[in-house]
Every structure is written in C-alpha cells, then in structure tokens.
Specification:
With 139 residues, the chain is an all-alpha fold. It contains seven helices and no strands. The protein folds into two domains: 53 residues, no CATH class; 83 residues.
Length: 139
C-alpha cells in the first residue's frame, strides 16, 4: 500500500533539494539553503524505510536496490560524460586531456575513497553514497 503522507514529504524534500542548488539573494537566501539541507538526510532515511517496511527478506531487497542504483548511476555517468565531452568540444577545450584526467589515479582514488563525482557532475555523489549505505546495511 502506498504511503501518501511519505510521498507528500518526499515532494517537499525534493523541492528543498532544489533550494540547495539555487542561489537566493541575501541573508534570507543563505537561511533557505541552510534549512533545506535537511532534505538529503531525509532521503537516506526514506531509503532505509523502504528496505525494512515490509515483512520480506531485507538482504534480497537491499541487493536489488544496490543493483537498481548502480544502473541509475551508470546511465547518469554515461549521459553526463557524453554531455561534458560535447560541451568541452563546443567550447574548444581539449576533450582527450579531460578524459585522461578522469581516469588518473588521483581522480579514481578520490571517487572510491571520498566519493567525489565532481569531475563529471558533483550532484551524482548521492547515488554512490546510497550504495555505500546499503552495503553497510547488508554487512
């Protein structure tokens, strides 16, 4: 059964995530950004709720969620990789130099150790972070 209250709060949290990424002017804008930061931890809690809210095998559910998020992450990375290559070529930048930098030891270490997705798109950090949380829950 669908939890409509949770859906409503998720919609509000999604709007708050947008507020994090939009620059509002002045002190009020900074206040909005600070207050909106509750949305990301909320989404982590909702993910945990959906792993355990039914009487079923949590391990199986977690594994399926990890695979689902890995697919989403892979599609997102491919999309933004193509987008960045196109934009760099459009702006006359060296695409190959950027690609070599992506697969450098330093960037790979930053991704696996610090979950840094900044070279492609910084906002993708959420997906591998969620995978890490599911892996910890699985252990």
């Amino acid at each position: 059964m669908r939890n409509k209250s949770l859906d409503a709060v998720k919609a509000i949290a999604a709007c708050l995530v947008v507020c994090i990424h939009v620059s509002f002017p002045g002190q009020a804008g900074q206040l909005v950004k600070v207050l909106a930061r509750c949305a990301v931890p909320f989404f982590f809690m909702v993910s945990g709720y959906f792993c355990y809210y039914q009487n079923c095998n949590a391990s199986k559910r977690i594994l399926s969620k990890i695979l689902h998020i890995m697919k989403l992450f892979a599609v997102s990375v491919v999309f933004y990789f193509i987008w960045e290559c196109f934009m760099k070529a459009w702006n006359g930048e060296r695409v190959w130099t950027w690609i070599k930098g992506l697969v450098s030891t330093e960037h790979l270490k930053e991704f696996f150790v610090y979950n840094s997705t900044s070279p492609i798109r910084a906002h993708l950090w959420f997906l591998p972070a969620l995978i890490y949380c599911y892996l910890l829950a699985l252990l």
